[in-house]
Specification:
heterodimer; A: alpha/beta; Rossmann fold; eight-stranded mixed beta sheet; 12 helices; about 35% helix; B: alpha/beta
């Protein structure tokens, strides 16, 4: 059961500009197992969406994969030509984006959009595709799916639309779903419903989900493992419980402390000074060092690599044996 | 501690928007005029030096309340009294002009609320000039420098344009502008929802420091319950234009009374990792043009009965908690475990 659906090895994305080469994603390493939700968190500009787009092959020129490999179901997909990648997208990788209104065609009834996708990838008859579309809509808990199959996207509320998008992503039974901020545009109560739908499909179908979000709460509710990204790199990756309760990297510690608590006293929030560096101005060494209180000598010029600390992997010199005592 | 002066008093505030189609379409399609009650009979008061927060989901009318309180929208019914002056009283022009300087607003989007063609020092100096608070250019620029350093920016940042700043820094500029006229009362409409959490923490800390320093009174509008709990002394929960519950945030979070508040609090993802089973949430906010009769929450409420479908519940006061619910009033709703 614990086979890897997705393997990302040393993935780097580069954007050449007139002056220099920007690296929004820099040496990512992670995998997602069958039936597992991997949360990818980070603040804006951390490169989490860029990493998602690189995996599904939707990078916009001039951004391109400069280095590394992406393996999906033991098949290398990062070097495939556009046409074969198009067949994989939708069939083997489903996608859910932040804004459900822009992911759906406003001029077509949702049933038509679903059957179109199903027929394209599964090669079944129109009748069967329609039945399947209704089953999918029921699965994402849209009430009265049979009646609403011919409704247009504008007739649905935001939360219902996002369910349609999830149904669309699942249409061809993909083994991997990449959900990029799927609940950010929604209210909390609707968000809770969407999270429970995502968890359900993950459990029932064994779909691997890469959940990209900036909301630690969403991650805590749904993810099995979390990767914390900062300026294009994973700074810490591990089981959700460990990351939330025992964060190790100073950035993760700061990130957790800056979330206002729902219990206890309203003490001052922990604040990380400054903000995420711009892509054209990434500091040398550990890119977090200008904001880090614990920065010491190696941080200024040597980049830390992910190494195993307890159950998690952390990229920080503080935990390096060679520097620990020195 | 803050004195117990009531600075802002809002009395049965109502705002109805006309959302009808144009006249000709109404005639041709035989449709009646349509009205949207965005805010319906909202009353609350804010004690000087405290923060009052309004929470609710999108469409609950919280931003409309904010706009009416600062005078950007006229109320259809009801009154707003700030510092003992009724702001809809057009006879008191002179007093109102003075009062304007004491009310300021911070908006959600720090990208849209700053003029991109103005330098930051001009942006911050605008309230000083329009309220004629400082006489000479020299005094103005001294005050601008002071305001910039107050919000944690450098005096030299005044010569820059807004696009040269990050989102958090822009929100600091907005705060500096709001503070320029030495206001007593600041209305903050989702001040941190466009920001990342680490930046949000910086802004929230800054706002609390400024409140302590100047004794500011905040009306805080937010959909983020954790932010509200962190900032407010009192929280009003809105649903479809009405306030369903007002309480101290600690009480509200530990012992919510109204079924909607309970549902909302149950929906927030927490970081406790308790893996508790959540009650699935039923339904969504109904269409505000055609809201349900009686208590507008009744179609989604597990405790609703016949009375809830007919009668709008009146707010009652239980141990300092204001709650508008028939079930709570009749003791039908079991205490939260």
């Amino acid at each position: 059961m614990s086979e890897n659906i997705l393997d990302v090895i040393d993935l780097s994305v580069e954007i050449p500009t007139r002056h220099n080469i920007l690296k929004p994603v820099d040496g990512l390493n992670f995998n997602i197992k069958r039936g597992e939700i991997l949360g990818v968190v980070g603040e804006s500009g951390a490169g989490k969406s860029m990493a998602g787009n690189a995996i599904i092959g939707l990078l916009e020129r001039p951004a391109h994969i400069a280095d590394g490999e992406i393996w999906l179901n033991k098949k290398r997909i990062d070097n495939l030509p556009a046409e074969s990648m198009r067949k994989i997208r939708g069939k083997e990788i489903g996608m859910i984006f932040q804004d459900p209104l822009t992911s759906l065609n406003p001029l077509l009834p949702i049933g038509e959009q679903l059957t179109e996708t199903i027929i394209e990838h599964l090669k079944i008859s129109k009748k069967e595709a329609l039945d399947r579309a209704i089953t999918l809509l029921e699965e994402v808990r849209i009430p009265a799916a049979t009646q609403r199959i011919n409704a247009y996207p504008h007739q649905f509320s935001g939360g219902m639309r996002q369910r349609v998008v999830i149904a669309l992503a699942l249409a061809a039974e993909p083994s991997l779903v990449i959900a990029d901020e799927p609940t950010t545009a929604l209210d909390v109560s609707v968000q809770a419903q969407i999270i429970s739908v995502l968890k359900k499909i993950c459990k029932e179908r064994g779909t691997a989900i890469m959940l990209i979000t900036h909301d630690m709460g969403v991650i805590a509710e749904s993810a099995d493992r979390v990767a914390v990204m900062y300026s294009g790199q994973i700074v810490e990756i591990g089981k959700t419980y460990n990351i939330i309760k025992k964060p190790r990297h100073p950035y993760t510690v700061g990130l957790m402390g800056s979330i206002p608590a729902l219990k206890g006293d309203n003490e001052r929030l922990v604040q990380i000074p400054g903000s995420m560096p711009r892509l054209n101005n990434i500091p040398p060494g550990c890119s977090f060092h200008p904001r880090c209180e614990k920065a010491f000598e190696p941080c200024y010029n040597k980049r830390p690599l992910l190494s195993k600390i307890g159950d998690s992997k952390v990229a920080c010199w503080l935990y390096d044996e060679g520097y620990k005592n020195g | 501690m803050a004195s117990k002066n009531i600075l802002v008093k809002v009395n049965s505030l109502t705002r109805i928007f006309d959302v009808s189609k144009p006249w000709l379409n109404r005639i041709l399609e035989r449709e009646k005029k349509q009205f949207l009650r965005a805010v319906d009979d909202v009353s609350f008061s804010i004690i000087e030096g405290e923060s009052f927060a309004l929470v609710g989901e999108s469409g609950s009318g919280k931003s409309t309340v904010a706009k009416m309180v600062v005078g950007l929208l006229d109320p259809t019914k009801g009154s707003i009294i700030i510092d003992n002056i009724d702001i809809s009283d057009k006879n008191k022009k002179e007093e109102l002009r003075k009062l304007r300087a004491e009310i300021q607003m911070i908006f959600q989007d720090p990208f849209a609320s700053l003029n991109p063609r103005w330098r930051v020092d001009k942006i911050i100096a605008e309230p000083l000039k329009s309220f004629k608070l400082e006489k000479s250019e020299k005094q103005i620029s001294a005050r601008v420098d002071e305001l910039l350093s107050l919000v944690g920016l450098d005096a030299s940042d005044g010569r820059k344009f807004p696009h040269e700043f990050s989102g958090g820094q822009r929100q600091r500029i907005c705060i500096a502008r709001a503070l320029a006229s030495k206001p007593k009362f600041i209305v903050c409409d989702e001040p941190t929802s466009a920001l990342d959490v680490s930046v949000q923490a910086q802004i929230l800390n800054l706002m609390r420091d400024l409140q302590d320093e100047f004794g500011l009174t905040f009306l805080f509008i937010s959909h983020d319950l954790s932010v509200v709990r962190h900032m407010a002394n009192h929280v009003g929960v809105m649903y479809l234009g009405r306030i369903v519950e007002i309480a101290n945030p600690k009480v509200l979070f530990e012992n919510p009374q109204h079924p909607y508040t309970r549902m909302l609090l149950d929906a927030i993802p927490d970081l406790e990792m308790s893996n508790k089973e959540r009650k699935p949430i039923e339904g969504e906010i109904p269409n505000p043009i055609d809201p349900p009769s009686g208590c507008t929450f009744h179609p989604r409420c597990p405790y609703a009965d016949e009375e809830c479908k007919i009668k709008i519940p009146a707010p009652i006061n239980i141990k300092g908690i204001m709650v508008a619910c028939h079930g709570v009033a009749r003791g039908r709703i079991p205490a939260k475990q």
